[in-house]
Structure formats: structure tokens, C-alpha cells
């Protein structure tokens, strides 16, 4: 059975769902097996897509007018097609001529998967290079420390003087989890207390 999925962006008639509906019907999708979403492709919440993916069964073919109607990104698109494959459901995109029931469509899918993997590797490489460059310039990532050096010194002195962690938290206005994490990070090995 052919199951159709359509998506149009929100806004004042930027896209018209009739074009997609007509193409899917012409491809043989029954009007009762059409699912649609009205919203940005970047929107993770797409009830129409969820219903379509729940509806398909082994042997069915999910049909879209164009690849960009289905996935938010190349990796998201491949994830959806992989999940269809796991359910033994084929995929067809009318505009690009991609059809996973055909060997050429399977090849195209594998090429897309390789490109997505390459894209992820390039992004990771750029991020790591950026972090290394920032580190060379003396910048470190992450949040600034909650406890500045002077306050941390006073806290350690109070703890070494016998003040309980609970009293330190109250007196210095520090959350207990922040105190424990900071003490672990600096390697403080004072006596554990019950407070």
C-alpha cells in the first residue's frame, strides 16, 4: 500500500499543499492514506508524520513529493528512512526519483548516508579545531565557575577549621551540590561530615 506524507510551512500561502496532494494522488496514493503537517521543517513536533510512521506496515511504501518535506536535516531524513527499513517499509520521493524498492534507490540512500557521516565528521573536526584555537588564546569553554577563588579559599579554610558543609552552604550562600562538585574538582580531602 502507498502511504503519502505532505508538509507545508506556516505563513501566508508560502506553499500550497494542493501541489503535493495532486502529485501523491497521481502516483497512486489513496486519498484516505494521506498524512499532512502544517509547520516549519525544523519543528520537531510533527503529528502528521508521527501518524504516518505509526500507520505504515511491512510491505508498504511511504511516498513524499520531495525529500525536504520529510526530514529536518540530512541526518534526520536518513534516520526516518532507516526506521522505515527496519519495519520493512520502502520509501519513495517523487521529485528526486528516489525509490528504495529499486537498486538505484538503495544506492542513492547509501550515498546519502555516507554524505551525512562525512558531514558529521567535518562538523566535529571544525568544532575541535575551534576549541583548540580558543585554548591556545587562553580561553576555556564551559560556564564560569560559581565559586571565585577568594570565596573558595574562605570556604576551604572554614571547612578545615571544622565548619560543617551544611553550615558552609548557609553562611556562604552556596548550593550543596555546587559545594560538593567544587570540592571534588579541587581534590579537597577534608574530613567528611554528617551535615
TrEMBL record:
Sorted UniProt keywords: DNA integration, DNA invertase, DNA recombination, DNA-binding
PROSITE patterns per the UniProt record, alphabetical: RECOMBINASES_2 (PS00398), RECOMBINASES_3 (PS51736)
Biological process (GO), any one: DNA integration
Listed GO MF terms: DNA binding; DNA strand exchange activity
InterPro entries with a match to the protein in the record: Homeodomain-like_sf (IPR009057), Recombinase_CS (IPR006118), Resolv_N (IPR006119), Resolvase-like_N_sf (IPR036162), SSR_resolvase (IPR050639)
Pfam family, one: Resolvase
Domain Resolvase/invertase-type recombinase catalytic per the UniProt entry, residue ranges: 1-138
Active site: 9 (o-(5'-phospho-dna)-serine intermediate)
Record-stated family: Belongs to the site-specific recombinase resolvase family.
Name of this chain's protein: Site-specific DNA recombinase
Originating species: Allochromatium warmingii
Amino acid at each position: 500500500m502507498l502511504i503519502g506524507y505532505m508538509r507545508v510551512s506556516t505563513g501566508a500561502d508560502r506553499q500550497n499543499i494542493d501541489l503535493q496532494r495532486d502529485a501523491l494522488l497521481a502516483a497512486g496514493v489513496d486519498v484516505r492514506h494521506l498524512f499532512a503537517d502544517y509547520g516549519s521543517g525544523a519543528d520537531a513536533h510533527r503529528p502528521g508524520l508521527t501518524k504516518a510512521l505509526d500507520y505504515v506496515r511491512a510491505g508498504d511504501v511511504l511516498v513524499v513529493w520531495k525529500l525536504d518535506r520529510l526530514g529536518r536535516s540530512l541526518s534526520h531524513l536518513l534516520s526516518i528512512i532507516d526506521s522505515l527499513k527496519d519495519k520493512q517499509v520502502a520509501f519513495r520521493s517523487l521529485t528526486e526519483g528516489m525509490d528504495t524498492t529499486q537498486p538505484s534507490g538503495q544506492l542513492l540512500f547509501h550515498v546519502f548516508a555516507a554524505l551525512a557521516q562525512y558531514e558529521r565528521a567535518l562538523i566535529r573536526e571544525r568544532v575541535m579545531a575551534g576549541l583548540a584555537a580558543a585554548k591556545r588564546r587562553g580561553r576555556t569553554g564551559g560556564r564560569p565557575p560559581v565559586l571565585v577563588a577568594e570565596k573558595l579559599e574562605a570556604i576551604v579554610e572554614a571547612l578545615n577549621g571544622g565548619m560543617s558543609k551544611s553550615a558552609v552552604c548557609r553562611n556562604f550562600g552556596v548550593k550543596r551540590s555546587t559545594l560538593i562538585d567544587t570540592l571534588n574538582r579541587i581534590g579537597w580531602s577534608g574530613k567528611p561530615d554528617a551535615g
